[in-house]
Design goal:
Largest sheet: none
Order of helices and strands: HH
Shape: rod-shaped
InterPro entries: Smim15
Structural class: mainly alpha
Keywords: Coiled coil, Membrane, Transmembrane, Transmembrane helix
Number of strands: 0
Strand content: under 5%
Number of helices: 2
Helix content: over 70%
Radius of gyration: 22 Å
Distance between the termini: 59 Å
Membrane topology: Single-pass membrane protein
Protein name: Small integral membrane protein 15
Subcellular location: Membrane
Length: about 60
């Protein structure tokens, strides 16, 4: 709990010193998180597609 309080104090201090820089950083961090989520989702979709292709090929051989 103490670490959270220290982090919150640090965030408030940074915001007070440079509000535009802080907000810009927050927006960029949010965008990066969304890009990472989209990439992971796309990778899972591709992996599932490859698994389905391999499964179809196995069934076709039988």
């Amino acid at each position: 709990m103490f670490e959270l309080k220290a982090w919150a104090e640090y965030a408030v201090e940074c915001f007070a010193k440079d509000p535009y820089g802080f907000l810009t950083s927050a927006v960029l961090s949010w965008k990066l998180a969304k890009m990472i989520e989209a990439r992971e989702k796309e990778e899972k979709k591709k992996q599932k597609h490859q698994e389905n292709i391999a499964k179809a090929k196995r069934l076709k051989k039988d």
